[in-house]
Specification:
The complex is a heterodimer.
Chain A lengths: L1 H23 L9 H6 L3 H4 L11 H17 L15 H4 L3 H10 L14 H21 L9
Helix pairs in contact in A: 4-7, 6-7
Chain B lengths: L2 H42 L24 E10 L7 E13 L2 E12 L4 E12 L9 E12 L21 H4 L3 E15 L2 E12 L6 E12 L16 E13 L10 E10 L4 E10 L7 E11 L2 H8 L5
Antiparallel strand pairs in B: 1-2, 1-12, 2-3, 3-4, 4-5, 5-6, 6-7, 7-8, 8-9, 9-10, 10-11, 11-12
The chains are: A mainly alpha, B alpha+beta.
Chain lengths: ~150, ~325
């Protein structure tokens, strides 16, 4: 009898878990002006240099990391989805490597983007290198086509 | 314990193990079914590469990504002096409700060799991130409700005067005592040059009024074997392997705070994050004093499902 009661309570708790968790998850807003996000970046982070800027493999590794961790929200081509904004538009591209690194590290928690400090710092710089390369490719063509493999 | 009492206890064990065998096999089937379902889902669900820490007891400050569900299965093999060894297991359903709130549901069970198999209860855990940005040390608030019996042996945390001999009675005796507990942890964690340092002081209150607050701790340190990612997708890259070590134990209770009559463990741990989205963890825990199990060999398998929340919402006609 006690066993049945435990099972019923477990089922009720699981249902409560599902309902509360699912109703709490809000759709992230992709319409927040990027300037508002950049305004939070501390001064010393603006000027931080990308230590992997000249690493020829960094962009390729960054692309792999982007596909593994970021593409599900920002799209395979980094051009945005229902869950996250485009990273190829003018606003993001105007950010310095240091600013993009800071946002990647801290996330935009209240808008649904988690911080990615769980990735080691060199891996976050690899993603920044990839995103900067992607933005350059957009500048050259002027089109928002899928990111080319480096 | 005198000979007559031992005889009576043996008789009792024999009688009840028969009764629990049916329920036990159902629980074992459930665990096996859960593991199989995890494998089956893994092949069809959207992939999300997990970057999981190797910790099994300690928590760091990294939460589940919003909308993702991580399904985890863990096993612990425990050596038990003076009684039968055991195999405990649990399923975890970890969901990123928001970027600042992760909620988890656990189902626990155990098999004590030459005794029986039992469902031992459930837990509902929540972790909240109070600050939006990274800080020098990052705190998380952890609150958990536990509805478990004394037969629960997953040893997901050590608290108060938890000692090895608590698990020496038969399942028939242990399952009679049911506990409703609230557990609070302060998760303090920092990432520095690829290393993660985490400390979790904890306090637990059994909701029956006569029980005191119990205290414990867990601490861990870990690091990926390589900090830079390689350019190609690979299974055996060093960056996919994270190694670490955990230390955890009890600190007594409000009536007798300290290390007296407490157990402590040191556990090297490794996590292997596969590109397919699976994570495998292994951790042999070594008891540090005579109150501890000599060995707690743990392993776990987990799979992260991306966009789970949206899939469920769309099933029920909500907007995705």
């Amino acid at each position: 009898m006690k066993k049945d009661k435990a099972f019923v309570m477990a089922a009720a708790a699981l249902l409560f878990f599902d309902v509360t968790a699912l109703t709490q998850q809000r759709r992230p807003r992709s319409d927040e002006p990027i300037e508002v996000v950049f305004a939070r970046v501390p001064e010393k982070a603006h000027v931080k240099r990308n230590p992997l800027e000249d690493d020829p493999e960094a962009a390729a590794a960054g692309r792999k990391l982007f596909e593994q961790h970021c593409a599900e929200c920002h799209g395979e081509a980094a051009d945005g989805s229902m869950r996250g904004p485009s990273l190829r538009d003018g606003g993001v591209q105007q950010g310095t490597p240091g600013e993009i690194f800071w946002i990647l590290t801290n996330g935009v928690v209240r808008r649904g983007m988690p911080g990615w400090s769980k990735l080691p710092e060199p891996q976050r710089w690899q993603i920044v290198t990839f995103l900067r390369g992607a933005s350059r490719s957009t500048d050259e063509t002027g089109a928002n086509h899928p990111i080319r493999r480096p | 314990m005198n000979r007559t009492l031992l005889k009576a206890l043996d008789y009792h064990r024999g009688e009840v193990s028969g009764l629990t065998a049916v329920a036990g096999s159902a629980v074992f089937g459930l665990a096996r079914g859960g593991l199989l379902a995890l494998f089956a889902l893994g092949f069809f669900a959207p992939q999300a590469l997990a970057q999981e820490s190797p910790y099994i007891v300690t928590y760091d400050h990294h939460l589940e990504e919003p909308g993702n569900l991580e399904v985890e299965y863990f096993s612990s093999f425990g050596k038990q002096r003076g009684a039968n060894d055991f195999h405990s297991y649990w399923m975890e359903f970890e969901y990123g409700a928001t970027a600042w709130w992760t909620t988890e549901f656990y189902l626990d069970g155990q098999t004590t060799f030459h005794d029986s198999t039992l469902f031992t209860g459930f837990r509902w855990e929540n972790r909240f991130r109070p600050f939006r940005d990274e800080h020098f040390i990052n705190p998380l608030i952890y609150i958990e409700y536990e509805n478990i019996s004394d037969a629960d042996k997953i040893i997901k945390e050590v608290e108060g005067h938890d000692v090895e001999s608590d698990h020496a009675d038969s399942n028939a005796v242990l399952r009679k005592v049911h506990n409703h507990e609230l557990e609070f942890k302060l998760i303090l964690s920092k990432d520095f040059k690829g290393w993660n340092f985490a400390v979790n002081p904890l306090a637990t209150k059994n909701l029956s009024p006569s029980n005191p607050w119990e205290f414990g701790y867990a601490a861990g340190i870990s690091r990926p074997l390589a900090l830079k990612a390689s350019a190609n997708r690979c299974t055996f890259c060093r960056e996919n392997l994270i190694a670490g070590v955990e230390l955890y134990g009890g600190l007594g209770d409000t009536q007798s705070f300290g290390l007296h009559e407490t157990s402590h463990y040191l556990a090297p741990a490794v996590a292997w994050n596969l590109p397919s989205g699976w994570t495998f963890r292994l951790s042999p825990g070594l008891g540090l004093n005579n109150n501890s199990h000599r060995l707690l060999l743990r392993w776990g398998l987990s799979r992260e499902f991306s966009g789970f929340g949206e899939i469920v919402r769309s099933l029920f006609g909500g907007q995705s």
